Amino acid sequence: MYETIHLSNQEKLRITGCLYQPSIGCPPFPALVMCPGFAALKEHYQAYAHHLAQEGFVVLLYDPSHFGASQGLPRQAIDPDKQCQDYICALDYLRGHTNVDPHRIALWGSSLSGGHVLKLASEQIDIACVVAEVPFISGSANAARHLTLAQQMRQQRRFTKEWCLQQEGRSTQYVPVIDHSSSMQQNSKQPSLFSGEDAYRFFTQVSCWPNRVALLSIAKVAHYEPALFIDQIKVPTLIMSSEYDSINDSTLQRESFERMRCVKKFVQFPCNHFSPYLKQPPITHKTACQWLKQYCCM
Known about the structure:
By secondary structure, the chain is of the alpha/beta class. The protein has one domain (2-138, 225-296): Rossmann fold. It is 34% helix and 19% strand.
């Protein structure tokens, strides 16, 4: 079970989260902040949060601003900088909670939010450790991996046009995250960002999930570079990678890991980007839990 809580971020928007209390031990407890990955909702990770709470952690899992039960317009709009600020608000909430040891709080992220926790680990020295699962490392590298130069230029022109329309007060343009079926075939008029059965199964396991993101979200993510902060991380950091990840390059994750000068660990699983979360508990759960216990329960 969990308690629904509300925070206020820097823009005074209400951030809604689920606060899980441990089923074992006595306070003050170690704790961690969890935020969904790209376009996902807290409901996608509730089972994961529940498993971690059963291991003795207070867990705060929340929807970032503009998503799910949290406030923010336009809806389904991703701004990495704002999402990092939401993390800090959640971290401050846990630091002030009577059941939490403020010196034993960890950050957890997956995919895009995995990039967030790596960036924040370079700035927030008073955190116990970090868990980054299939993390986003570099927007420019992802663009070069998935798009030709000509495609990138066409995309940039589309972003510029949308930005100009937004300045005129026009309605937000959206793009689908996944295709409407688990088929590998995509709608050629409105291609989705992700394809494949595992992506479909992951996102659609939450019935209320809206299959879209604001177009300018893609532009902001494309310019997001957690890689720039990797060598500044000073807290123990676990990176979990998927060997067959077609979204976030596992080779780039490994290269970033090698650049880190902190206590660190790299674990790779023989799966794709979404498959760790299609089983309960997730296949990454045991490794994450061991790391969290090692550095939060000292």
